[in-house]
Each structure stands twice: as C-alpha cells, then as structure tokens.
Amino acid sequence: MFYTKVCEILNIKYPIIQGGMAWAANSELAQGVSNAGGLGIIAAGNAPKEIIREEIIKIRKKTDKPFGVNIMLMSPFAEDIIDLVCEEEVPVVTTGAGNPGKYMEKLKGKGIKVIPVVPTVALAKRMERQGADSIIVEGTEAGGHIGELTTMAIVPQIVEAVKIPVIAAGGIANGRGFLAALSLGAEGIQMGTRFVCSTECIAHENYKEKIINSKDRDAIVTGRSTGYPVRVLKNKFAREYLELEKQGISFKKLEELGAGRLRLAVIEGDMENGSIMAGQISGMIKDIKTCEEIINDIINEGEMCLKELNAIKRGV
Length: 316
Ligand code: TUI
What we know:
By secondary structure, this protein is of the alpha/beta class. The protein has 14 helices and eleven strands.
C-alpha cells in the first residue's frame, strides 16, 4: 500500500521523507525515520563539514537503510558540504533556500539522488532539466524559510509541469494530509514539524511542548520585509522582531538580531528569546511518539481515509 515512484527511486518502504531541520535533525532523528521505512535526513544547516561528517558516520552505525543530507544553500559551508556528501557518497541529498543547479553535475556524477526543495513552477522545471530525481514542493504552511504559495495551490501546478515525481511538503502531519497530498498528484510527503515531536528528535523538551500546546493561529511569519520570510511560533522574540521590522530597522541589524536564535530555542530550550521555527500544522500535533509510530499511524490513517472516500463514492 502506498508504494510509489518515490519509494522506488529512494529504495524506501513508505514515501515519507523527513524535513531537513537545522539543529533538530541530526543522525538520531534520521536513523529513527529511516529505520521506520521512511527517508531520514541529517540537516547540515549552518554547520561546518566535519560536524556533519560525524553525523554521517554515526547514522551508518545505526542503520543500513538509505538516508539523506539536507544542504541549506545559504550556509557559508554549503560548498564544503557538497564536497562532503560526494566524499561520503551519501545516498540522497535534499537542498533548501536556493538553487542547487551549479552542483547538480557533481552530485549526479557520484550517483547521489538529488531532490531540491522548490517553491515555484519555474524552478521546478529548471531542476528537472538539470537532472533532479524528484522535487519537494513546499507550500507556505511549512516552518522555517518559506515561499508564498500554499501546498494546495502549488503542488498540482508543479505535478502538471514536470514528469519527475513530486513530494509535497508544508502543512502535512497525519494520514489525511498524506492522502490529500497523493490526491493532488504528489507521490510522497515531507514532514518537519511532526518529526520534531518524536522521541528520537534531540530538540529540547520545551520546544516540543511549545508545538504541542500551540493553537491554529500561533505560527506566524517574520522577516517579510527582508525578503526572507520565516515561519515561527509566536513568542517574545517574534513579537519584538516584527515590531522592529515595522519600524524599518536595517536588514543588517535584523540579521544580527536573528543570529543564534534557532540554536537557542532548539538546543537551550529558550522559548522567550529563541526562534521557534514550526509549521502551521503545529496546532494539530498533540503528542510525542516514536518515528515508527508516527509513520505507521500515517499509513494506517491514510488507508482508513481512502476507505472513507470509497464509501462516499459508493454512496453508503
Ligand atoms: O530551506 C527551507 N527552510 C529553512 S532554511 C532555514 S535557514 C536557517 N536558519 C537558521 C539556522 C539554520 C538554518 C530555515 N528554514 N525550506 C526549503 C525552502 N527552500 N523553502 C523555500 C526554498 C527556496 C527558496 C528559493 C528554494 C529555492 C529558491 O530559489 C531561489 C532561486 O535562487 O531561484
């Protein structure tokens, strides 16, 4: 059930990919997802090469299943991480926050499957032309750095525009969302926020609790004025940041203000002064489960949901 082209390309059991969340997604989370039949991802974030190499070595001790590394293209170490994934011949690379076009040939030359995150039809088409194996189409419901368009609107447009399989992301955390994504033509999903609330995720308990206690309107967007919008859960820091944006303080000052804030929230658990990146679906997440439970629940709920839809079709 639910074996798609994404499963075939990535050699995984279920078409469920874990988001590349800086600081939160290390080898511990990634092995949990990969061992449960999805694709676990180590997020390179802004970390230097040798730190990520250690995570790759660790995950290989904990699973023989495929895994990936997420390369945040705005990182000062992005080129180093490209070299690293080639040296280590990691099975899969996902990219975010930029166009990975110039690295594509090098990665493909090493037999690495490349799956860029794209927020628009134009970039999706370009990525397909340049050899991407699949693309992650991320709607604005997602946490962290986001595009403009919603998952509902952009996924079917990109499904129509490309032949490679599409993975939907942004606003998905249960079996209904999974089935909805498949209905839009996607052949897999990527989830970030749901996997933060897993037992394997090393994010501070305060961070997980903050997501669990959040309501529908608590995920807001900061940084629109900078051209780099970021979705976070409301807190003291987010309110202060928005106020300073309104006052028109310089991009450089805002950048300085934001430095180190994600680490402060994820690692230190500072829910007042940290940046609590999380998606709009936070309000629906109510528990911490193992990655295996999260994935199995989604597959079971997806099957149940499909039966419900069939019952509607038959008019029973
Ligand atoms: O990248 C993300 N989410 C992120 S990146 C991030 S940055 C960060 N901040 C602090 C510490 C560590 C890391 C936080 N969240 N999602 C994928 C994504 N990619 N969303 C949007 C895009 C994107 C945007 C523009 C992809 C390509 C793109 O291309 C523009 C171009 O150059 O054509």
